[in-house]
């Protein structure tokens, strides 16, 4: 797994906020190699640090491998981002489509050991999350069940509910893992 760290050429004093972006692509394709215009603005105008991450893809790797990979990236950022001038205590997750799903799930499952095998004691909490057209309703999604989580019949509905951000919010709230969230949904015009 790889990640890219983007910083401003002129670095202001002090530690700067960090955005971790998780790419979309239906959990089966996509790349960390695209710097979005909003990321460029954050870097050049607001002096944020942006980290674009990769994660292993389905069908070779069934979900929740994707979520575990995001947690590994959060661990790395928390441990190393200060070397780039970033604040390990001010991390915001963002993602589009499948990445929006992973960003929401990573934020809401902070510090849950089943997604942090080998680094159970690392704090994976974040300050906020932004979901751009995120896949937030996967609890009835047969594509996700069969082509991403690689489920066979019968479909494990409880698993889908536990990994659908729209149904997981109440649980995250009760566990104290619900962070400020911005959900942006684009609308097609014809």
Question: Can you put this structure into words, describing what you see?
Answer:
The protein has 190 residues and is of the alpha/beta class. It has a single domain (3-184), classed as Rossmann fold. It contains six helices and six strands; from the N terminus they run ββαβαβαβαααβ. Strands 1-3-2-4-5-6 form a six-stranded mixed β-sheet, sandwiched between helices. Strand 2 (16-22), helix 1 (37-44) and strand 3 form a beta-alpha-beta unit. The chain is globular and about 55 Å long. Keywords: Hydrolase. GO terms for molecular function: hydrolase activity.
Order of helices and strands: EEHEHEHEHHHE
Can you tell me the CATH architecture? 3-Layer(aba) Sandwich
Structural class based on helices, strands and sheet pairing: alpha/beta
Quote the CATH topology. Answer: Rossmann fold
The helix fraction, in percent, is 25-40%
Number of strands: 6
Give the CATH superfamily.
Alpha/Beta hydrolase fold, catalytic domain
Strand order of the largest sheet: 1-3-2-4-5-6
Low-confidence stretches: none
Instruction: Report the β-strand fraction as a percent range.
Output: 15-25%
Radius of gyration: 16 Å
The domain tally reads: 1
- Major sheet details: 6 strands, mixed
Distance between the termini: 39 Å
Give the C-level CATH assignment.
Alpha Beta
Overall residue-averaged pLDDT value = 94
Number of helices: 6
C-alpha geometry: globular
Q: Please give the oligomerization state of what you see.
A: single chain
